[in-house]
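Predict structure. Chain length: 51.
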Amino acid sequence: MSIDIQILKKLYAKAVLNNQEQFMYKGQPILTSYAKYVIEYYETTVANKPQ
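Prediction complete.
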């Protein structure tokens, strides 16, 4: 499954706002804590990788 980080960020923010432990992403349940990890990983590695 490929990740659309912008959609993941929006769904994560909504889940945090609503105090949800998980949310649906592309038809699959995602733990909010795991989504936080994925977003942080992306922002510190993939987004900062020189091209």
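Summary: Helices lie at 5-17, 32-46.
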